[in-house]
Specification:
Rip2-like, mainly alpha
Amino acid sequence: MNNTAMRVSPIFLALLGTTVAGGFLATLDNSVARIAGVVLIVLGGWASSLCLHEFGHAITAFRGGDREVRAKGYLTLDPRRYTDPVLSIVLPLLFVAIGGIPLPGGAVWINHSALRGRRIESTVSLAGPLMNLLLGVGLTAAVATFSMPIGLAAGLSYLAFLQVIGFVLNILPIPGLDGYGAIEPWLSGPARRFGEKARPWAPLVIIAVIIGIPGAGVAFFSFAFWFFDLVGGDRLHALIGDSLFRFWQ
């Protein structure tokens, strides 16, 4: 086994370090430090979760028979290994910064022919969004369990809310999203060919609908908040975190 193909990337560790540094700043009794802390928590934490999302796909594929993911470095949590780091890391961070919508992006290439059956293919697709859900539940549990300053609670709650949005958005059965990837192995040939044609554009159309059509964004975020409440999230802290993160708006 090549140990370098399994070793955790220093870039991922730096992203985690950024998140921790933000957590420290968010505890300080200073408005500027608190805002800076929330920004670092959200950006560092979201970038880290993007890596973990793709790791979820990769490790599930590895266990399901695709040994190529290790050789490609997908198990190192290194975003430089992704098929398109700009679409997978930079663009999602930009969308979070300007609109609070965690845009999904294709990142790891899976050799589906090496996987042991359609059930494994579906599981590989679901592993990414389930990682977001797990992170969201863990963060909400931490805020609910431990007493912490308002800045830290707000930053972690907003980050947890982004994880929930990421799960809700990615689980939709639309070409290009993981929810569609979960059902794709079970579809007919013509349906899969149609999905292939729609894959590059469908996620962007969904984002355009959420942003551009009156009422669509309200309905989407209302459902996301309902689900956030369902997993134990603190809506007030999440809203405070949102306002601190986008302080310039």
